[in-house]
Specification:
Structural class: alpha+beta
Radius of gyration: 18 Å
Protein name: CVNH domain-containing protein
Order of helices and strands: HEEEEEEEEEH
Strand order of the largest sheet: 1-4-5-8-9
Low-confidence stretches: 1-19
Helix content: 10-25%
Number of strands: 9
Keywords: Signal
Organism: Thiohalophilus thiocyanatoxydans
């Protein structure tokens, strides 16, 4: 019976190898190590100021790391957001400006989540219509990496 348990645990470990991992970040110093993400060359500290929440995700299978943050006292009222051609908008559709280069605009609510991944290296604000907390920031980082994979 113990051999069966060991085999099952071993298979579970093999199946999860290369699976994405994610972490929630809170204000202050947050350690993110090579144990969390083998893609890192070194252990890092992610320092967030008071009122800032964040999330980081590591997708070793696709060689991607994503980071998303927000401020708990940030703007949440209805406002306009602009997107570049090809960007994913808050409703999940892609911005298609017909090649004009003008981008797209839409009305958004909720917190803005400045986010970036190692795939594109550019910080772009995402508007998922959610409040700012570490859980939602982690989800935005995970979603961004999934879109970039």
């Amino acid at each position: 019976m113990n051999k069966i348990k060991l085999i099952a645990i071993g298979l579970a470990c093999l199946m999860t190898a290369g699976v994405a991992s994610a972490a929630q970040l809170s204000g202050g110093s947050n350690d993110y190590t090579r144990v969390d993400c083998d893609l890192l060359a070194n252990d890092i500290k992610i320092i967030l100021t008071s009122g800032v929440a964040g999330g980081v995700t590591c997708d070793e299978a696709n060689n991607l790391v994503g980071l998303s943050v927000c401020h708990t006292a940030g703007l949440t009222t209805e406002r306009s957001a602009t997107y570049d051609h090809g960007d994913t908008m808050s409703d999940g559709t892609q911005c298609d400006d017909g090649g004009s280069g003008d981008g797209c605009s839409e009305t958004v609510t909720g917190s803005g989540f400045p986010s970036a991944s190692t795939a594109n290296g550019t910080v772009k604000t995402r508007y998922p219509g959610k409040s700012c907390d570490a859980t939602n920031a982690e989800q935005e980082a995970t979603d961004l990496v999934a879109e970039d994979a």
